[in-house]
């Protein structure tokens, strides 16, 4: 049986996230190496947009699991940091601001990959080339600045803590005695709807570009404007990009859904809060693993490096079979 009192605790959250970071860091370094050094010439047009997505995903991942390790008492916007930034003196409010801005930044980087494919394949000669940079700049600025009003209106802490405890008294036993719990806001509505709007914006733009890409590739295939081989290559790459970007997003649906339910219903369950952050931190690890898996050059590199003995054994066996077959063929010819 699960020890719910331990799952509720800061020790469980920090221990689990820090353990995950031990696996995440080498995986992310391998992913970055693959993008920078193992991206083939045929994929060079998307190399840096893929690296951009990898960077923001890793940054979000490590910010949660290692740098900030947020212990938050949803539905109250109260929490504290258990990560490295806490021990080097980074203000808690800056840590919180970093976390909430990284979520939409990852979404914008997904949009950037899809927009890049759309531009290179279908609109590099159109007027879109004049609007794409301002468009992406707007999205990134929106992700970095959307929570600025909430940050600038952080309440006086003692009074805010008393007000929140009156509304949600059950969190009292989870308020740590070291005095480092921080109240971001006494009203979650502004924070929540800002998050919803940004998620809607980046999701909408990503889905729009994905649909346009799919429709245009289908149209070109029908009109035979591209060779069948090129169409197939583009379809495979498009499918790989969609898998790479959509699967981690599906992982985030669960914690985001719980966050919405918790805030609007007032339901408090600290074990669920902790598990939500653990699931969210898993997003980056999954994203890197999927990226390596779905793109053949990266998959082949990992196979050769980490399964070299098996690879050599297979090559040796293959050569022996080929030699045996040639000997049989020669013997048959001699007869």
From TrEMBL:
Keywords: Membrane, Transmembrane, Transmembrane helix. This is Serpentine Receptor, class H. It comes from the Eukaryota. The chain crosses the membrane at residues 12-36, 48-74, 94-114, 135-154, 191-214, 236-260, 272-294. PANTHER family: SERPENTINE RECEPTOR, SERPENTINE RECEPTOR, CLASS H. InterPro entries: 7TM_GPCR_serpentine_rcpt_Srh, Nematode_rcpt-like_serp_H. It comes from Caenorhabditis briggsae. It holds the Pfam family 7TM_GPCR_Srh.
């Amino acid at each position: 049986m699960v020890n719910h009192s331990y799952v509720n605790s800061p020790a469980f959250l920090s221990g689990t996230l820090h353990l995950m970071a031990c696996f995440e860091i080498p995986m992310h370094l391998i992913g970055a190496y693959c993008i920078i050094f193992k991206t083939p010439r045929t994929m060079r047009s998307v190399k840096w947009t893929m690296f951009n997505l990898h960077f923001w995903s890793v940054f979000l991942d490590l910010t949660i699991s290692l740098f900030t390790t947020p212990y938050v008492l949803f539905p109250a916007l109260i929490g504290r940091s258990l990560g490295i930034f806490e021990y080097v003196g980074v203000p808690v409010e800056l840590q919180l601001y970093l976390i909430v801005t990284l979520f939409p930044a990852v979404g914008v980087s997904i949009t950037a990959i899809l927009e890049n494919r759309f531009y290179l394949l279908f609109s590099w000669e159109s007027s879109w080339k004049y609007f794409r940079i301002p468009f992406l700049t707007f999205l990134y600025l929106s992700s970095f600045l959307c929570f600025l009003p909430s940050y600038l209106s952080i309440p006086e802490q003692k009074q805010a803590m008393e007000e929140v405890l009156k509304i949600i008294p059950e969190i009292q036993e989870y308020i740590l005695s070291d005095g480092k719990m921080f109240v971001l806001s006494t009203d979650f509505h502004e924070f929540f709807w800002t998050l919803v709007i940004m998620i809607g914006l980046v999701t909408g733009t990503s889905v729009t570009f994905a649909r346009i890409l799919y429709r245009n590739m289908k149209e070109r295939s029908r009109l035979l404007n591209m060779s069948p081989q090129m169409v197939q290559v583009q379809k495979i790459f498009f499918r790989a990009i969609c898998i790479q970007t959509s699967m981690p997003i599906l992982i985030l649906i669960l914690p985001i859904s719980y966050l919405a339910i918790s805030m609007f219903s007032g339901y408090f369950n600290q074990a669920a809060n902790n598990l939500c952050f653990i699931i969210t931190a898993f997003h980056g690890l999954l994203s890197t693993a999927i990226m390596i898996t779905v793109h053949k050059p990266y998959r082949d590199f990992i196979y050769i490096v980490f399964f070299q003995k098996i690879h050599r054994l297979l090559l040796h066996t293959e050569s022996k079979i080929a030699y045996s077959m040639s000997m049989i063929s020669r013997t048959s010819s001699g007869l």
